[in-house]
Amino acid sequence: MRRLQTLEREHKILVRFGAAVSSQTRLEPLLKLLADEVRQLLNAQRCTVFLLDPQTQELRSKLAHGLKALELRLPLGRGIIGAVAKTGRPLLIPKAYRDPRFDPSSDKKSGYRTRNLLAVPLKNREGKILGVFEVLNKKRGTFSREDCGLLQLLAAIASGAIENAKLCEELRDSHLETIYRLAMIAEYRDQEDTALHLRHISQYAAVVAENLGLDPGTVEEIRYASPLHDIGKVAIPDAILLKPGKLTEEEYAEMKKHPAYGARILENAQTTLLQMAHRIALAHHESFDGTGYPKRLKGEEIPWEARIVSVVDVFDALATRRVYKPAWEPQEAFRYIETKAGTQFDPAAVEGFKKGFPEILELLRTDVIARPASC
Ligand code: C2E
Ligand code: SIN
Ligand code: SIN
Ligand code: FE
Ligand code: FE
To answer: Is residue 297 in some structural domain?
Structure first.
């Protein structure tokens, strides 16, 4: 009877745990979720997730309760954690300091006192070691064999989720890299620091979106879609794009075709991300009061993503050097944006920009090459 109740309880825990972790496709929040859940389920003071770095063969703590910035590193084979990773077998240690395998250097580093611990391997489907799950200091007594069994089950679910999140992240990274490289084609000709400009647009747009309270998924979309806003410049002749001085009326008219060119490149996109990039490319020079180009759209007729990119594009164009103009002081550029709220720019987007400005300024400042001393 007791056994049945335990099974039922475990079953419930696993279903809930599985549902919670399988929906998280980002590694960092996933590890935090895993650590929180496992600590609670096993009544432990602390849970640490170590992941194996295949390059260095080191186990690195990716998340540990109470250790904010500190990263613990253990070579494969060293300490309890290293032994678990090496053998692929769990270890239940009731008295850490009595166990010769225990490596107290982590405690020394963290100022923590490990009494007892339980560590189980994280393995992928092929049985390859991904890392180690460790719980420290059972709140009452020490960890039991049942705890060990439960933690192994949790680790099996967690391994699947970790692998999945890693793959998703890799896919996202390669997606982003492709977009950056594509965007570079268009812009490398007219800016010395193209990569920097693209990174700025991407970061600033995400900051503004965040400060407007958009959900994290949407923030990520605009982060990845915004660098393509000027992709249409690929079709603009060098003589115009690279002209060191002011453009003639004719040249400027040619320049103003870049949103339409960009839209053509991105038209009929299949993914929501590139569909957003299409809307941004086409509408990032529209003006809130209806005086922009190419369509003279007004207010809400302009896609919201384009209203955000418009603000950060002009800010970055002003705050950095262009072939045709020197860099403005960031504060000056900020004031320009402020004064154009309601005319050139969506006042809401400007509000988000103002809220996010300290962060934007920080991003601008930490990119040292953004402020060439010569201008
Ligand atoms: P961009 O360099 O990325 O600039 C984007 C936008 O930032 C501009 O859109 C404009 O709204 C704003 N902006 C940039 N510099 C200034 C400035 O000195 N004063 C003010 N008030 N706003 C500024 P816009 O005007 O539609 O220009 C689109 C693109 O056309 C620019 O992209 C740039 O590539 C090119 N362009 C514009 N003016 C000139 C110029 O005088 N010479 C050259 N060579 N290119 C120009
Ligand atoms: C060990 O692996 O021996 C100690 C690891 C830890 O305290 O986290
Ligand atoms: C530009 O069209 O980018 C230049 C406008 C200005 O210099 O005010
Ligand atoms: Fe543009
Ligand atoms: Fe731009």
So the answer is: yes
Pocket test for ligand 2, best of 50, 59, 71, 72 (most atoms within 8 A of CB): 72
pLDDT digits (tens, 9 = 90+) for 207-255: 999 999 999 889 999 998 999 999 999 899 989 988 888 999 999 999 9
**Can you tell me which atom of ligand 2 is nearest the CA of 112?**
7
294 preceded by a cis bond (ω within 30 of 0) = yes
Note whether residue 82 is domain-resident.
yes
With vertex at residue 311, the alpha carbon angle to CA 230 and CA 211, rounded to the nearest 5 degrees, is: 120
Instruction: Check residue 226 and give its pLDDT.
Output: 95
* pTM for the full predicted model: 0.68
The protein residue with its alpha carbon nearest to ligand 2, atom 7, reads: 106
Q: Which helix (H) or strand (E) holds 207?
A: helix 194-211
Measured in Å, residue 339 CA sits from the centre of ligand 2 at 57
Tell me, yes or no, whether 181 lies in a domain: no
Give the count of domains, the chain.
2
Computed over every residue of the chain, the mean pLDDT equals 89
Q: 313: CA distance to ligand 4 center in Å?
A: 8
The domain of 229 spans 191-370
Shortest-distance ligand to the CA of residue 322:
1
